[in-house]
Design the sequence.
């Protein structure tokens, strides 16, 4: 509980890295995105974030991504439920079967889209984890929390009034941080 209280205070405007050291960069050109866990009350929040993360990684033109159906097939074969976090051994097996160097998982901690008095408010808190595919260990994690109104410029300009638009912006900020810190470079 204390961890989450401290973490919430560190969220701020930028993504917050957890467990990262400069020597931890994982050179990976092949990645699989694991099913994300939805700990929010927003229906299909994990699917929204998963699709956006996949699309944003494709748009970088840096990585080869395993197909989501192939990941789901291996989850089924290993009898891993989508809401479960795989063990390091299971992560190693998944990476080996897919032929990937890194795995990305995580959870949607909070996702809200509310309308009140003609105003739409959006809020998103996510944690994304990157695992080494060779041994299944977590390399680093990133926590990010934003509200649509955080982007307000003038009056209503710059607001993110839909959860999908806010989600896309949050994922872009996380990937921008990874690029800046050279956390997941493709050297191939």
Sequence:
């Amino acid at each position: 509980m204390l961890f989450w209280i401290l973490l919430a205070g560190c969220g701020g405007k930028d993504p917050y890295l957890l467990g990262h050291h400069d020597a931890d960069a994982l050179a990976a050109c092949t990645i699989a995105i694991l099913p994300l866990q939805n700990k929010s009350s927003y229906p299909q929040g994990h699917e929204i974030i998963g699709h956006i993360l996949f699309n944003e990684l494709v748009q970088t033109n840096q990585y080869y991504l395993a197909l989501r159906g192939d990941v789901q097939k291996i989850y089924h074969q290993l009898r891993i439920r989508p809401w479960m976090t795989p063990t390091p051994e299971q992560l190693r097996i998944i990476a080996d079967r897919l032929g990937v160097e890194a795995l990305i998982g995580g959870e949607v901690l909070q996702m809200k889209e509310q309308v009140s008095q003609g105003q739409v408010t959006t809020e998103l808190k996510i944690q994304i984890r990157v695992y080494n595919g060779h041994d299944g260990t977590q390399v680093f994690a990133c926590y990010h929390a934003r509200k649509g109104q955080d982007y307000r410029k003038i009056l209503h300009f710059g607001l993110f009034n839909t959860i999908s638009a806010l989600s896309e912006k949050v994922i872009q900020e996380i990937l921008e941080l990874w690029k800046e810190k050279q956390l997941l470079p493709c050297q191939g």
